[in-house]
Please model this.
Amino acid sequence: MKAFNLKFFFLFIVSTFSLKANSASVCQTQYTNLHYAQAECHQIERPYGENQKFYIKSVHLKANHPQPESRPTMILIPGGPGEAADGFRELLEKKEILNALYHHLKLNVILFDPRGTGESTFPEQTNAPLVLNQENMSFKLLVEDFEALVDYYQLKKVMLMSHSMGSFTAMKYAERNPNQVSQLILISPSSGIKGLGDINLWYY
Model:
């Protein structure tokens, strides 16, 4: 019985270690296999309040190329509010889209989930349910998150492609950082935020 318990304990430890190791690389493996590219998964730490922090998750897709860093980078900005990058992920599963981005346009691509969506976290609150206010959700904060993303990757020039309400982030970033935006592509940009009720997402 003791030998059995010891063997079971050993297998449990090995299995647990294996799961942790696999979870650390599952993002790279998933995207590398799916998108036929070199995938790097990152999380950008963002401050909140005096001592809190949260994380913006992103994926950097680099074409299989001898010098991928020399290629221009396009960042895809999802819409919403409240949408993650799932729509863009599904788009990149199409080989004709990949061929256009990697081989014709010769681009690298960055996907990211805005705060509180997808794999990204959200500033914690002690009260429940979650209350959205200008301290934790506004266009100003979304743009600051995006600026932190660009700074993290140390990109001097970026191409921006945004969808729906993500266009507010793209346009405001371009306004604040005109010398860093080489191209701005807006897909079905929103014309306003009427109908969002008490959620105040205005920039100012």
About this structure: The mean pLDDT is 76. Residues 5 and 23 are 27 Å apart (CA to CA). The two ends are 68 Å apart (CA to CA). Residues 2-35 form the longest helix (34 residues).
